[in-house]
Design a protein that fits this description.
By secondary structure, the chain is mainly beta. The chain has two helices and 28 strands. The radius of gyration is 20 Å and the shape is globular.
């Protein structure tokens, strides 16, 4: 018995030390740079605040929406560039049952939970644990300790995000997490609002998009999955062949906000390709996740952004790679449950190029 008690005490002290090492850090802005390709990140919400790269004329442009000040990120309700967790996207009714225990979470979108709740991973300060600004492989790793019971979730979690600039114009993002003492759902993602024509270039409706998913997870009026997986053929959601984002958007109420089931079974799956004719920029996305939420900034309205530019609906698109929304309440979806001793890893690779 005494050995068991000593072990529990050691685990408790370990968790306290981990928590103390991650919390209480100053908010800053960190740049990783490789030639004329650079990414800036703040440790508030581990948010991407800029991605700079040249267009077909060699002109450098910023291709993500965002703000000029950290204070604006603190007050943001659109999740500009933010890391999403402990569970990205929606959990219906802000509740679920795991191992016979019913958990009630903190709702922040009506009766549902969105992106981890009012104090999700996008609304906390992360610790910068490793940082190499430039050189052949610039990167930054940020970590966050999420306590047992945070936003209603069971168990403590240690999470990390690593941003790396690889080769020419490649941005790697790797999410890692460990469940420290209890089984818990973990589904990390992030929310860059991409406009590869430039954050201040207007809407993305003329940009050409291809998504490598032939099915979607159907949702109800509150955007909660019903559990049904449906084919996209002959619907406005069909982007299997490249076509303009706005080609059929008028057939939807507000725009796109739906999870696609990716077709590939490879470890790193083709997710989507975006092309902007005016700038010549192309963005190719690959990920290890089974799904991607395609969102067209439907509820961004008169939002003052970087340089005073005012963002409007459809001024960007998001391709949020993840396990399906509300998976914890749908046994037919891939599982988001991580048990103690298991490692969670989700990798995303953005490759940028020029098409003249």
């Amino acid at each position: 018995m005494s050995l068991k008690i000593n072990l529990l005490v050691c685990l408790f002290i370990f968790h306290l030390l981990v928590a103390a090492s991650v919390r209480g850090h100053k908010i800053g802005i960190y740049e990783i740079k490789k030639g004329d390709f650079s990414v800036k990140i703040t440790n508030y919400g581990t948010s991407i605040i800029s991605v700079l790269l040249p267009d077909k004329h060699g002109k450098i442009g910023d291709v993500v929406l965002g703000y000029d000040t950290i204070e604006e990120y603190k007050n943001d309700t659109s999740y500009f560039g933010a890391t999403l967790g402990r569970v990205a996207n929606r959990i219906g009714g802000a509740q679920f049952t795991l191992n016979g225990i019913h958990y009630k979470l903190v709702p922040n979108e009506g009766k549902n939970m969105l992106h981890g709740g009012p104090k999700g991973f996008s609304k906390v300060v992360w610790k910068v644990s490793k940082y190499v600004k430039d050189g052949p492989c610039p990167y930054i790793t940020l970590t966050y300790y999420s306590a047992d019971g945070e936003e209603g979730f069971p168990g403590a979690v240690l999470a990390s995000v690593t941003y790396t600039l690889k080769d020419s114009y490649k941005l790697s993002v790797v999410f890692r997490a460990k469940a420290l003492n209890k089984a818990t759902p973990i589904n990390l993602s992030h929310h860059p609002y991409w406009n590869i024509g430039g954050h201040d270039s207007g809407d993305v409706l003329s940009q050409v998009l291809q998504i490598f998913g032939s099915h979607i997870t159907l949702v109800d009026k509150q955007l909660i999955p019903t559990g049904e997986i449906a084919p996209i053929k002959n619907t406005p959601y069909d982007f299997l062949k490249p076509r303009k984002v706005g080609s059929r958007i008028n057939k939807l109420k507000n725009g796109y906000d739906i999870n696609y089931v990716l077709d590939s079974t490879e470890k790193m799956k083709p997710v989507g390709i975006v092309y902007d004719k005016k700038s010549g920029r192309v963005m190719d996305v690959q990920a290890s996740s089974p799904g991607v939420q395609f969102y067209t900034a439907n509820f961004v309205n008169n939002t003052k952004g970087k340089g005073g530019f005012v963002y409007q609906p459809h001024s960007a698109l998001s391709l949020e790679t993840l396990v399906f929304p509300d998976a914890v309440n749908h046994p037919n979806f891939p599982s988001t449950i991580v048990n103690p001793g298991e490692k969670y890893v989700h990798s995303v690779l953005y490759t940028f190029s020029i098409k003249k």
